[in-house]
Amino acid sequence: MIEITPLLENKNGSPIYLQLYNYIKQEIERGRYQANEKLPSIRKLALYLDISQNTVESSYQQLLAEGYIESVPKRGFYIQQIDEELSVVKRHKPFPLAESDSSFEKVDYHIDFHQASIDLALFPISEWKKCSNEVLHNRSIFDYGHPQGEMSLREQLAYYLHFSRGVNCTPEQIVVGAGTQQLLGMLCLIFKQCESSIAIENPGYKGAKDVFLNHGLDVEPIRVEADGISVNELKKSKNKIVYITPSHQYPTGVITSITKRRQLLKWAIETEGYILEDDYDSEFRYVGRPIPSLQGLDLNERVIYLGTFSKSFSPALRVSYMVLPKSMLNQYKKMYASYDQTVSKIHQEALALFIERGYLTRHIRRIRKLNRQKREVLLKAISKYMGMNVNVVGEKSGVYILLEIKLSETEETLIQLAKKAKIRVYPTSPYWTDYRSIDFPKIQLGFGGLNEVEIKEGIYLLSKIWFK
Question: Is the whole model's pTM more than 0.85, yes or no?
Answer without folding.
Answer: no
